[in-house]
Specification:
seven-stranded mixed sheet, Quinone Oxidoreductase, Chain A, domain 1, 24% helix, 25% strand, alpha/beta, 9 helices, 2 domains, 15 strands, 341 residues, six-stranded parallel sheet, Rossmann fold
Length: 341
C-alpha cells in the first residue's frame, strides 16, 4: 500500500519564559505500511497539558525531556486505520501517547481500547483519562478525603480541578474553588454546583478572599497553581490539614527561582501534610477509577467542559493558551474527523 503522509509538531528550540509559537515547527513525514503486529492509527483528538512545559526544558525530571527536532508526544485518541495486530481491528478507537501528530504506527502494546458507549471518545483525554485519574487519586488517596470536610481547589474550572470539585461534592464536602474569569466562576457555581467560587484575578487579597470563603478553615487544599494560592491556603488550613501538590502552573514559565510560602511554619504547629504526587505512579487505580466514574456519569453527577482547537498546526497556540487561561475545562486539539460526533 502507499505510504501515509502525516503532519506533526516538533520542538524547534527550548522556550525561555512563556513559550512562543516560534519555539515549534510543523513538519510532514511519510509513514510506512505497518509491519507484522503493528497498527496504523489516525489521531482524532490530541491533548495539550501544562506538565508538558517542564519537558521542554533540558533538565532531569520524573519524565525525560522532549528532544529538539523530534515530534512532541502526549495523550491522544484515534482510530485504527490498518492493522496487522490481532488485538485491534480497523475502526477500533484507541488511547495512546503519540500525540501532536496526525497519524502514527504502533506495535499496540502502548495502546488501550476506548469504549465510545461509556463516554465521548475525547473524554478519555480529560474526565475519563489522565486528568480525571489525577483528580481521583490526588483527592482520595493523597488527600485522604473524609466526608463533610472543606476542600479548596485552585484552577477549579480546569480539567483536573473540575473533577476534584465534583468528587468532593459527591463525598458530601463543602467545596470552594478559584478560577481566572467570571465565566469560569459562573460555570463552577451553576453547572458544577460548588459552594463558593471566586475570580482570583479580581481578588485584591487572597488571604482575605479565603477567609471569607472558608470561615471554618480548610481541611484539604488541592493545589494546581502554587504561588500566592498555596500561601493563602496554608494560612487557613485546619489542624491536620492536607495539601495535595498536583501542579504549580503559576511558576512553570518563571525564569528565576520563586520564593516559597512565607508562612510554611504553620505546617509545624498545625501538623499539616503537604505531599506532591505523579499520576503515573498510580496507574493501578485505573480499574476502580473507571468503575466509579462510570457510575457517577450514569447518575448524571459528573459534568465536564472542553475547549477544542481545530488543526494540528494550531497545537502550539492551544498549548500556549493554557498559560493564558484560554481554556474552560480540558484543552484539546482536533486533528481528524470524529465519526462518533
Amino acid at each position: 500500500m502507499a505510504e501515509t503522509k502525516s503532519r506533526e509538531i516538533r520542538l524547534k528550540k527550548r522556550p525561555v519564559g512563556m513559550p512562543r509559537e516560534s519555539d515549534f515547527e510543523l513538519a510532514e513525514v511519510k509513514l510506512p505500511e505497518p509491519g507484522a503486529g503493528e497498527v496504523l492509527v489516525r489521531n482524532i483528538y490530541v491533548s495539550v497539558d501544562p506538565y508538558m512545559r517542564g519537558r521542554m526544558a533540558d533538565r532531569k525530571s520524573y519524565t525525560p525531556p522532549f528532544q529538539l527536532g523530534e515530534a512532541l508526544t502526549g495523550g491522544c485518541v484515534g482510530q485504527v486505520v490498518r492493522s496487522h495486530n490481532d488485538r485491534y481491528q480497523p475502526g477500533d478507537f484507541v488511547l495512546g501517547m503519540q500525540g501532536w501528530r496526525e497519524f502514527f504506527v504502533s506495535q499496540g502494546s502502548d495502546l488501550r481500547s476506548v469504549d465510545p458507549a461509556l463516554a465521548p471518545i475525547q473524554a478519555f483525554l480529560g474526565t475519563m483519562g489522565m486528568p480525571g485519574l489525577t483528580a481521583y487519586v490526588g483527592l482520595l488517596d493523597i488527600g485522604r478525603l473524609r466526608d463533610g470536610e472543606t476542600v479548596f481547589v485552585s484552577a477549579a474550572s480546569g480539567a483536573v480541578g473540575s473533577v476534584v470539585c465534583q468528587i468532593a461534592k459527591i463525598k458530601g464536602c463543602r467545596v470552594v474553588g478559584s478560577a481566572g474569569s467570571e465565566r469560569k466562576v459562573d460555570w463552577l457555581l451553576s453547572d458544577i454546583g460548588i459552594d463558593e467560587a471566586f475570580n482570583y484575578k479580581d481578588a485584591d487579597d487572597m488571604m482575605a478572599e479565603l477567609a471569607r470563603a472558608c470561615p471554618d478553615g480548610i481541611d484539604v487544599y488541592f493545589d494546581n497553581v502554587g504561588g500566592d494560592h498555596l500561601e493563602a491556603a496554608i494560612q487557613h488550613m485546619n489542624n491536620f490539614g492536607r495539601g495535595v501538590l498536583c501542579g504549580m502552573i503559576s511558576v512553570y514559565n518563571a525564569t528565576e527561582p520563586m520564593s516559597g510560602p512565607r508562612n510554611l511554619f504553620y505546617a509545624v504547629g498545625r501538623r499539616l501534610t503537604l505531599q506532591g504526587f505523579i499520576v503515573s505512579d498510580h496507574y493501578d487505580r485505573f480499574p476502580q477509577f473507571y468503575a466509579d466514574m462510570a457510575t457517577w456519569i450514569g447518575q448524571g453527577r459528573m459534568r465536564w467542559q472542553e475547549t477544542i482547537v481545530d488543526g494540528i498546526e494550531n497545537a502550539p497556540s492551544a498549548f500556549i493558551g493554557l498559560f493564558k487561561g484560554d481554556n474552560l475545562g480540558k484543552m484539546l486539539v482536533k486533528v481528524g474527523p470524529d465519526p462518533t460526533a
